[in-house]
Design goal:
Length: 156
């Protein structure tokens, strides 16, 4: 669906912070409880920090006490790739942004039972939160009057 983004490692290195580069392009893991989104409760959509594709919604974020932002679902399954990762003597499933092939984190099957049962364990620095308007429900802007039209037009 979305077009692939392919950049050279030199380009990524210029665009990303050293920490982001190590995680997104080098499969590093940020230290637990250090990421900026670990305890974030802000509403919005978490996008890929490398390419901006929407990945996770704040409505599926929950506190797993693992030290990393955790989600029980993705915004769209087509937006991520899952790969077997047998590094570090563990059998894990790596979560990769499908659009730019950047490493995001891992997915485990110990998530909330009443939801999907999945725990997407994602590095904060691989994410970029696009904040939603603070109040839920219809946006007031939808009903905004256009002042320049006031006083004109047909009277009923
Ligand atoms: Zn991406």
């Amino acid at each position: 669906m979305s077009e692939k983004i392919i950049k050279s490692e030199a380009e990524w290195r210029r665009q990303l912070s050293p920490e982001q580069y190590a995680v997104l392009r080098g499969q590093a893991t940020e230290r637990p409880f250090t990421g900026k989104y670990v305890n974030s409760k802000a509403s919005g959509v978490y996008a890929c920090a490398a390419c901006g594709q929407d990945l996770f919604s704040s409505t599926t974020k929950y506190n797993s006490f693992s030290g990393w932002p955790s989600f029980w679902d993705v915004v769209d399954e087509g937006n991520v790739s899952l790969r077997a990762d047998n590094s570090h003597g563990m059998r894990r499933v790596e979560v990769v942004c499908k659009r730019c092939d950047s490493h995001l984190g891992h997915v485990f099957d110990d998530g909330p039972r009443d939801k999907t049962g999945l725990r997407y364990c994602i590095n904060s620095c691989a994410l970029d939160l696009k904040k939603a308007p603070p109040s839920p429900g219809p946006s007031p802007h939808l009903y905004e009057e256009h002042p320049q039209n006031e006083g004109r037009g047909a009277k009923s």
